């Protein structure tokens, strides 16, 4: 599957132009032999303005338990590449009807070292939003449309660290979730590419909460 013609709104123009050439931080440089996966960065316009769809993985999972994420997963043999995989996963995980999504672009591959996946982010415009709900209760606990203005609000941004003192990167408090790790790193780049980023206090550092740390330690 390829990119589709889109009637996306002007506020996505800059992102659409900049996202395909977003810089890849050294820690996310893809490695040979990694398994191929894809995620969907789905933009829409909800009651609170422009937003992006996020899920929260179930706390019972053995990998990435309880972590906020973009809909997505491994690219299966039946998928016609990352676009098809991202749309399929969004349907299975959150009820996003693929026919209502216009594909804007694909972003550079990113390496997720924890699970040894090379991930292709696929950006889409939610032309015809569908009702959303967790599609796999055993895998997805929550789905939420998170306003971009909330993500960009400096009051909702922080840096998280391990109790040992190791800084784990940027984070967001939005949509009733603490968004951190890979998803927060990608969202940080998304805000810059779209021109929505605002200055924030990068010196505001907090420990990753104990319950989040416990879930993350599973793998």
UniProtKB/TrEMBL annotation:
PROSITE patterns the record matches: NUDIX (PS51462)
Domain Nudix hydrolase stretches: 33-172
Keyword field contains Cell cycle: no
Cofactor: Mg(2+); Mn(2+)
Keyword Magnesium among record annotations: yes
Organism (species): Actinomadura napierensis
Protein name, per record: CoA pyrophosphatase
Keywords, ordered alphabetically: Hydrolase, Magnesium, Manganese, Metal-binding
């Amino acid at each position: 599957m390829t990119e589709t013609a889109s009637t996306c709104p002007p506020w996505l123009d800059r992102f659409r132009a900049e996202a395909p050439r977003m810089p890849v931080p050294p820690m996310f440089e893809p490695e040979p032999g990694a398994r191929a996966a894809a995620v969907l960065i789905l933009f829409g316009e909800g009651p609170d303005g422009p937003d992006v769809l996020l899920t929260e993985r179930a706390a019972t999972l053995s990998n990435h338990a309880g972590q906020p994420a973009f809909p997505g997963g491994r690219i299966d043999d039946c998928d016609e590449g990352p676009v098809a995989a991202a749309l399929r996963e969004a349907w299975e995980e959150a009820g996003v009807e693929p026919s209502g999504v216009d594909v804007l672009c694909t972003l550079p591959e990113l390496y997720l070292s924890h699970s040894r996946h090379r991930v292709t982010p696929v950006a889409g415009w939610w032309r015809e939003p569908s009702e959303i709900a967790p599609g796999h209760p055993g895998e997805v606990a929550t789905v939420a449309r998170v306003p971009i203005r909330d993500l960009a609000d400096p009051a909702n941004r922080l840096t998280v660290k391990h109790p040992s003192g190791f800084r784990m990167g940027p984070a967001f408090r939005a949509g009733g979730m603490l968004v951190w790790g890979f998803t927060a790193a990608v969202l940080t780049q998304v805000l810059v590419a779209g021109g929505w980023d605002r200055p924030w206090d990068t010196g505001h550092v907090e420990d990753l909460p104990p319950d989040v740390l416990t879930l993350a330690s599973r793998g």
